[in-house]
Amino acid sequence: MRLHVGCAMWTHKSWQGRFLAHPLPSHERLRHYAGWCNAVEGNTTFYATPARDTVASWARQTSADFRFVIKLPKVITHERRLTDTDEALHAFLTAIEPLGPRAHALWIQLPGSFTPADVPALARFLHRLTRSHRYAVEVRHPVFFNDPRAARLLEGALATVAAEWIPFDTTAFFRSPPSSDAEREAWTKKPRLPLRSLALTDRPIVRYLGRDAAERTIEGWQHWTDTVVEWLREGRSPTVFVHTPDNADAPLLARRFHDEVRVRVPELDALPQPIPTEPLTLF
């Protein structure tokens, strides 16, 4: 039983001198981030497959129990839509090999145009994948959330290879109008979908978007603290990524989420101690 928490990235301009020492060479920023959180979203791999040496550096900067949820490149998921992907997929899998067990799950984020009619293509793609990794799928078409038949179709395809369904919970964010520039930008870009909190495997993964105000982010995640506590008591090992529109306090918020869960599940392992910079508080 373990709870992993993290952010959408491991470096951010607003974190310099707060969560990460400053100045700090780029090849050491992940090590400092890993003092705050024990997981991270691998979003950069969506845009290009990284060099194997770069990935080896990620492994060197993190402990053996740190976890990456690594996104498949868009050439596989969005451009080729899961067909004729053997060459691109082989290059990607070769590149991320140095992570070893740190690669918690390979994240298949599908475009909003992916519909139930495309599920057979996903099923074929999943069955061709190596079983040396675990997989998690994110869909954004509303029909999967509003139509039980569509949800069951997708769940059936995922179940055959023990893949997880990643929800991106934006319900707290869209509860009231935006009040900052970052929130206004996110308002036009983030998916607006119903809440889903059903785990399919023993390693559920959640992406949660709060607000720039820390207290509103914390208020909005109360459903997830209850859900994660229940999952842990069932013997599952969840991973929760905390986002805000500006992500300015995301590492601190991720730790706060872990702390809230640990109060209710005291046997949960503590997070690592951050590399000191200066005292921080949320309020």
UniProtKB/TrEMBL annotation:
Annotated Gene3D superfamilies: Protein of unknown function UPF0759
Superkingdom classification of source: Bacteria
Protein's name according to its UniProt entry: DUF72 domain-containing protein
Species this protein is from: Candidatus Protofrankia datiscae
